[in-house]
Amino acid sequence: MRRALALLPFMALLFILPFRGTVALRMICLAAALLVVVVLWRRLASPRVPCKPAIGGWALIAVISLAGAVDPAYSLGEIKNEIVFTMMAFVAFFAITRQEVDLKWLLMSLFAGAMVLCVGAIQSRWQLGAWQQLSTFYGGSGAFAGYAAAVAPMLFLFAAYTPERRRRAAVFAVFALVAVTTVLSLQRMVWWAFALEGFIALVLLKRGGLIRLTWTGLVSSVLIVVVLAGGIFLAVHQERLKGNVAEEFTRDSRLKFWPSVVHRIAEHPLAGAGFGREVMSKAARDLIPKDTSLLWHAHNIFLNYGLQMGVPGMLALAWVLFCLLREYWRFCSAPDDKLKLLGIAGLMLVAGVMLRNQASDEFQRDASILFWALNGALLGFGRRRLEQPGPSGAA
């Protein structure tokens, strides 16, 4: 009972994160989760929080960017939203997730929220014939694609940790629901994120001896994943643009837009216009193409960081991601099968979410909190299991 009560604000947060209009409730849940961790800190016996130097460097460069910020008040607010709040979630989930049962309860609340979100989006699409970007509780299609890229690895992990056939079938049903909703969102890059996640899963399951698959079978499986993702990508692209696919690829404004962004970063490589995705529209409005107002930011997380904090900001982000990947690779190399599965899911999460954000930077607010909360939960459970003495710990 105590464990359930302690997990309640964490579960509530994961459930409500993707829903529009829940900012106040989201902050209440986050504050309650952090309070639980503070009160129970000694009992939780939390291991050392990983990636601290990289996270510290990231935060430091963001703060330093305030010196040259075009709008210091805005940038300070974005640091609070995108670094302070996300790190609160990361540390809180890292501390609270001690055992496999804790992780499963958290993931089940995530899946429950995903089901409600998907059913609402599908129903609306069925009734209105299009994804409603505004005035809906399920949010925009771009935000959903990033959400789906984060949920998919967690579904994989839960299924891998669940031997019961009925529960696995339920997990696969949730994944099918998420996949159908992703198709209806008409987002394209997310399918390559799914393909990358599938590739990582297949290769590392084979490497860890977790599936019986010949090398020919592995190559065939990877090709099936790539062809399937590519086919859906093309179908969605055709449906979205209603034109000649080959011609539309060359018309994509981002392909013409990104070189000018790179050139602007190169002009001032050591400093940017201040932290926050909107700084390009504040400090470099001349970069926004005249024929489309949608490109008010770089639509690429690394290029956005370059505009905000220069090359140091881009390197700081890369350092943080590298440290996360290194932690999960340690799990993949452990003798414990459950740690291997945890490491695979973590690598899928980081790689999939980051690839999704190479063509449309949606790594903001609820998406960034979700990403860091899930990483905190995975690393919290994984670090404890890795440090256990005996056969389940590290060799």
Short description:
The chain has helices at 2-16, 23-39, 41-44, 52-64, 72-96, 100-128, 141-160, 165-185, 189-207, 215-241, 245-251, 253-267, 279-283, 301-332, 337-356, 365-386.
Provide key terms for this protein.
395 residues; mainly alpha; globular
Topology of this structure?
Elements: H1 2-16, H2 23-39, H3 41-44, H4 52-64, H5 72-96, H6 100-128, H7 141-160, H8 165-185, H9 189-207, H10 215-241, H11 245-251, H12 253-267, H13 279-283, H14 301-332, H15 337-356, H16 365-386
Give your account of this protein's structure.
The protein has helices at residues 2-16, 23-39, 41-44, 52-64, 72-96, 100-128, 141-160, 165-185, 189-207, 215-241, 245-251, 253-267, 279-283, 301-332, 337-356, 365-386. It is mostly helical.
For the sheet with most strands, the description reads: none
Calculate the mean pLDDT score and round it: 88
The run of helices and strands is: HHHHHHHHHHHHHHHH
Q: Low-confidence parts, pLDDT < 50 over ≥5 residues?
A: 244-250, 391-395
How far is it from the N-terminal to the C-terminal residue, by CA?
34 Å
Q: How much helix, percentage-wise, in residues?
A: over 70%
Compute the number of strand runs.
Answer: 0
- Beta-strand content bin: under 5%
Rg from C-alpha positions? 21 Å
Instruction: Give the helix tally.
Output: 16
Task: Decide which structural class fits the backbone.
Answer: mainly alpha
Based on CA inertia axes, which overall geometry fits? globular
